[in-house]
Design goal:
Elements lengths: L16 E4 L3 H12 L4 E4 L3 H9 L3 E3 L2 H5 L4 E4 L4 H9 L13 E4 L5 H12 L4 E4 L2 E2 L2 H5 L3 E5 L3 H14 E6 L6 H29 L4 H8 L7 H12 L8 H18 L4 H18 L7 H9 L9
Parallel strand pairs: 1-2, 1-4, 2-3, 4-5, 5-6, 8-9
Antiparallel strand pairs: 7-8
Helix pairs in contact: 8-10, 8-11, 8-12, 8-13, 11-12
């Protein structure tokens, strides 16, 4: 294992940043950092994503270790805790080369207990860990307008601050204990998943009643039954466009984490449990990688209801 080098930041120079995970969110975050004047290295399992980032003016690396070796800040934008652990401590992981006193910003949604364990392991090596889940879409990520729910030590916040300011329109500092950011994000995901499932149920039920569902959308978005998810996701159903902005399987994962947390806490969460079953059914039918509004398609298929875009 290569010995960590001392972190070097000359004068007022911006810190060097690596973004690991160039999916829709990570690519946007890397772009917003580059647009803010940072020296950014992108890393992803997709060589095409890395090549695209390099073509647009960034730098590329083939492994997390290669990306981290010149970075003062590493931003991890992967799907879950397992991937986060792999890019940190797996073969070719960032912990092999991450400079001493650098900060690892973890943006994956995960169980707070896992976030605490990863932080403990990394901090024992002399690096900092910031628990910083994100909220917002790819467009907001590229514009540096995310909401970031962060917790960690004062030193971690201080090291991460330049990148956080470039990536976030709203930064919530939720305490000095890693895991608080993750817990806040899971409450958000509980509500988000329930609202998507409810919106899907409502619009499919409206179609079953023979209602003009575009008019239903107009009426509901001006009424008390509206939600952000109804307003955002139902247009995907109206257009018959299930290109994934956020996939069904994301909520299979996140609502599953909520069930695990609730079971440990002996706290009943029956509404989110019902929502999880709808996402599971949708995924099991082959739509796991489609847009999460596909839950409406599942309702439609089960009940013989026609939605826009369905075969005649």
């Amino acid at each position: 294992m290569r010995k960590p080098r001392e972190c070097r930041m000359a004068g007022t120079d911006k810190p060097r940043v690596a973004v690991i995970g160039l999916g829709s969110m990570g690519y946007g975050m890397a772009t917003s950092l580059r647009n803010a004047g940072f020296d950014v290295t992108g890393c992803d399992v997709s060589a095409e994503a890395v090549a695209k980032f390099v073509a647009e003016g960034g730098q590329g690396a083939a492994t997390p270790a290669a990306a981290a070796q010149n970075a003062d800040i590493v931003v991890s934008v992967v799907v879950n805790a397992a991937q986060t652990e792999a890019i940190l401590f797996g073969a070719g992981g960032a912990a092999e080369t991450l400079v001493k006193d650098a900060v690892f910003i973890s943006s994956a949604t995960m169980d707070p207990d896992v976030a605490r364990r990863l932080a403990k392991e990394l901090e024992a090596t002399g690096r900092h860990y910031l628990d910083a889940p994100i909220s917002g879409g790819a467009q907001r990520a590229a514009q540096g307008e995310l909401t970031i729910l962060a917790s960690g030590s004062k030193a971690a916040f201080a090291k991460a601050r330049p990148a956080l300011d470039a990536m976030a329109a709203k930064l919530y500092e939720l305490g000095d204990e890693v895991g608080q950011g993750a817990a806040f994000k899971m409450i958000n995901q509980l509500l988000a998943g329930v609202h998507i499932a409810a919106a899907s149920e409502a619009i499919a039920f409206a179609a079953k009643q023979g209602l003009d569902i575009r008019k239903v959308y107009e009426v509901i978005t001006a009424s008390a039954g509206n939600s952000w998810m109804f307003e955002n996701r139902v247009p995907h159903v109206l257009d018959g466009d299930y290109t994934p902005r956020s996939a069904v399987d994301i909520f299979v994962k996140d609502l599953g984490i909520i069930q695990d947390m609730a079971r440990t806490a002996k706290f009943p969460v029956p509404v989110s449990a019902a929502a999880l079953q709808m996402f599971l059914m949708t995924s099991a039918s082959g739509m796991g990688r489609d847009d999460d509004a596909s839950v409406a398609r599942m309702y439609a298929r089960v009940t013989g209801t026609k939605l826009p875009g369905d075969p005649a």
